[in-house]
Amino acid sequence: MRGVLAGRDFRRLFATRLVSQAGDGIVTAGVGTYVFFNATTFPSPAAGAAAFAVLYLPYSLIGPFAGVFIDRWSRRQILVWAAAARAAFVALTAVVVLGGALGVPLYLSALAVLGINRFFLSSLSAALPHTVPEDKLVMANSVSPTIGGLLAAIGGIAGLGARLALGGGHRAAAAILLAAGCCYLGASLLASVLRRDLLGPTRDPDARRSRLRSEFALEYGKREEEAAARARKRFARIYRRVPAALRIPAVRSRSRRPVLNAHRSRQRTDPTM
User: Fold this and answer.
1) d(C-alpha 42, C-alpha 32), whole Å
2) CA–CA dist 2, 92 (Å, integer)
3) Which one, of 15, 188, 189, lies nearest residue 116 by Cα?
4) Residue 184 main-chain phi, psi, to 5 deg
5) Rounded mean pLDDT, 195-199
6) Residue 190's pLDDT band (boundaries 50, 70, 90)?
7) Rounded to an integer, what distance in angstroms lies between the CA atom of residue 38 and that of residue 145?
């Protein structure tokens, strides 16, 4: 554990995870207590089902496709902008909660926060091998998610305690969400300290140039084939317009040409002819 924490880059990435997941716990406490401990809706099976659907929908819809973008975009930039975007959406959720809304506006804003969080957590996992030596990667992979989950639980407990201290209500839930937004802003600032090219993905300039050349050659070959096909179609249309009486002699002359060439060659070689 001490050897893993010795790396400066790992400590910065680890701190980004801890601050962000503490905010995740606070958001869960703020939204959960507002939905389930709201006197106007609790107990409401529809509200509970909608809340759990919002909670697990990003794992099903966004999770499988997150790797496609993480392998193409700068992971450091994903961490910076994803955390900042979550802070903005959490602030929007706080405004919705402060207005007393419960329904589609609340669930859409919460879904945006959780959906962006899938990109954030996947980027953290993909960036981890770039911050620790290979012989310490197993330890880093076991430590980071475990302590991150622990900080999320601590953040949730802190959110519940804040709600009890503030006396509940819309204002208390909005204040809890704003505190989570501050955590996300802190995570964005911590991620911005990392070098832009540190976390990958690793790009090989020679491989990229060869890939571009092959794609250009493939595209150029397709265009040549399409041009040849258009030329053949154009010639076929013109040839069909020619009268049959003019087309047949042209075919015959082409078929008799080898015979005439052979006769002329015999005349040149045989003096008696």
Assistant:
1) 11
2) 40
3) 188
4) -65, -40
5) 86
6) very high
7) 32
- Written as one string, the DSSP assignment of 112-137 is HHHHHHHHHHHHHHHHGGGTS-GGGH
Show the tokens assigned to 159.
Answer: 């959110």
Do the beta carbons of residue 185 and residue 87 sit within 8 Å? yes
SS3 100: coil
Helix axes 45-61, 104-127, angle to 10 degrees: 30
Which H helix or E strand runs over 1? none
What is the chain's Cα-based Rg?
34
pLDDT, residue 77, reads: 92
Amino acid (one-letter) located at 150: L
CA–CA distance, 145 with 14 (Å, rounded to integer):
10
> Which are the contacts of 96, defined by CB distance < 8 A and separation ≥ 6?
105, 106, 109
pTM: 0.69
Return the pLDDT at 113: 85
Amino acid 211: pLDDT: 58
Measured distance CA(101)–CA(93) in Å, rounded = 10
